[in-house]
Amino acid sequence: MSAAQLPGRTGTMPFRVELARQLSQWRVRIVLLILVLIPVIVRLALLIGGAPTSSSGSSSQTTTLVALAQASGGTFAAFVLQLTQGFLITLIAALLYGDMIAGEASRSTLKYLLTIPVPRLRLLAVKVGVASALLLAGLLALTVVALVVGLVSFGPGGIQVPGGPRLALGDSIGRLGLATATGAAGLLWAAGLGTLLTVVSNSPLAAAGGVVLVSILSRLLDSIPTLGDLRIILPTHYSTAFSQFLTAPTDLAPVADSVLSGLVWAVVLGTWAAWWFSRKDVSG
């Protein structure tokens, strides 16, 4: 009987320990710092660019998203979410999940973690949990900072819906939270694929790059109308579902489809990753 099978000899791999380990890495700190600084960078860009001007022949363009972004604090926060809930957030998710196991393998520390001994699936589950917590914290920080920057810069107003009403600030804050949560649910496929690729590859760059490549291909295929209903199986097909909470009225059908699609991809890819990692040779 191996040490990992003996009662009382199995390491627990505490969540807080792994979280502290991840926060000590400069890659993770930079990722979180980028998410916090994005609203400030966007505000500076709008400040430098100034307010959009409209000519007599383009009066219909005065309600562009950039113009509305400066209408109120809530609208600015919604604008920041619109900018980031796409390739950028997918890239950050790819970096966090792609580094979980592949990063340990590249640093030759994976085999030492498993000799604690920590059950492989316990190790993988804790790392997925930490990566998910960091991603959620980063997305929440992005939304909160965007709202604070918007309120300070453009006043305590709610979201101005293009061509529609201005929502109350309290309602807008709730909608921003729901939009952030929906955007996170839309990344479940990236979490599942990143988990699979990080246990298959020994290179965190290759694992993260694989997620980004699939995202690009999925978005490319999703832009081809002739594919019809086949596009619903693409992982990024519902990537804009979060925007339903930034408009009025709100259609919850795309939101439900986004969550369901993300869960299916996460379960399938996560199960595959767990099966692969439980049989992977890490002796080298």
UniProtKB/TrEMBL annotation:
Gene Ontology CC terms: plasma membrane
Stretches that traverse the bilayer: 30-51, 71-97, 130-156, 176-197, 204-221, 259-278
One function term, GO molecular function aspect: ABC-type transporter activity
Keyword rRNA-binding: no
Keywords recorded for this protein, A-Z: Membrane, Transmembrane, Transmembrane helix
Descriptive protein name: ABC transporter permease
Organism field: Subtercola boreus
Lineage, broadest ranks: Bacteria, Bacillati, Actinomycetota, Actinomycetes, Micrococcales
